[in-house]
Design brief:
The protein is α+β, with helices and mostly antiparallel strands. About 40% of the residues lie in helices and about 25% in strands.
């Protein structure tokens, strides 16, 4: 009881100065329910805050220093310590992913606006032999905005179906049988390899992917986003043309890493083009 009585009431100006906040910001946080005053004078409407509220006010200042939205700030303030720390960590991870994606988008735009200058310097192109594969498939027409949702869902469905045939035998891949951009929607095919020994007993949609040589470049999770991923495709096609290779089949993305746990800068995908 004594602690409450000893907790000094500060006028809004004094509280704002000590919290490093403006009175205008305090009124905003009051309207948002983040930091309501402890007492409002019924005659003057003047706001008063207990000195013990300074810790919460200073925390808001620091969270806003991260450009954290007020809705997320409210969640942090309402959470117990360890949970609040987890919320801050999750928010900052999302910021880092967004900035990484924006950095790759800026690089893509620079390459496009400069007529492709520096593209091959940015992407290392390699070659490999790919054996014949038996794959479960799912295909649809999809726009760029659909792919980040549909591809993982289709991969999960096919991986679940693959359990009946011994499980997933190699990295899943996505084949683009037509261009996917603002004006075209594929079609796009998700493929999950399974053991070819099951070729005569597969009840799901499936086909055989022929053996081939492919040129490819490896990209990070941040580079997979549209439209910056197009720069990687352009680099592989440019290399094939410069090396006198003939493109013999549709381009594809080979996903070899766990997307859910990968950081923005981690390599997750190969952009590949079958060549002869």
């Amino acid at each position: 009881m004594g602690d409450v009585e000893d907790d000094e009431l500060l006028a809004i100006g004094a509280f704002a100065r000590r919290a490093r906040l403006s009175p205008k910001a305090l009124r905003l946080y009051d309207r948002q329910g983040l930091l309501p005053p402890d007492r409002v004078d019924p005659v003057t409407g003047y706001r008063y805050y207990r000195e013990s509220r300074l810790a919460a006010a200073r925390l808001i200042v620091r969270l806003r220093g991260l450009d954290m939205p007020l809705t997320t700030v409210a969640e942090v303030l309402a959470a117990p310590g360890p949970e609040a720390a987890g919320l801050v960590a999750a928010y900052w991870e999302s910021v880092e992913h967004r900035v990484a994606a924006q950095r790759e988008l800026a690089a893509h735009l620079r390459i496009r606006l400069s007529g492709g200058e520096g593209r091959l310097d940015m992407y290392g192109i390699e070659q490999r032999e790919v054996p014949e594969q038996l794959v479960l498939t799912e295909q649809r027409h999809a726009g760029p905005e659909d792919l980040p949702v549909w591809i993982p869902q289709a991969c999960d469905r096919l991986a679940e179906a693959a359990k009946a045939y011994g499980g997933v035998a190699a990295a899943p891949f996505v084949v683009y049988h037509g261009e996917v951009n603002e004006d075209s929607d594929g079609p796009v095919e998700v493929c999950v390899p399974i053991d070819p020994a099951h070729a005569g007993s597969v009840a799901h949609a499936h086909r055989t992917e022929p053996a081939h040589r492919e040129a490819y470049t490896t990209i990070s999770k941040a580079q997979v986003a549209y439209p910056q991923i197009l720069s990687a495709y352009d680099a592989v096609f440019e290399w094939a043309h410069a090396e006198g290779r003939t493109v013999v089949s549709s381009p594809r993305e080979v996903y070899f890493a766990d997307w859910a746990t990968a950081a923005a800068g981690d390599p997750v995908c190969d952009i590949a083009v079958p060549v002869a």
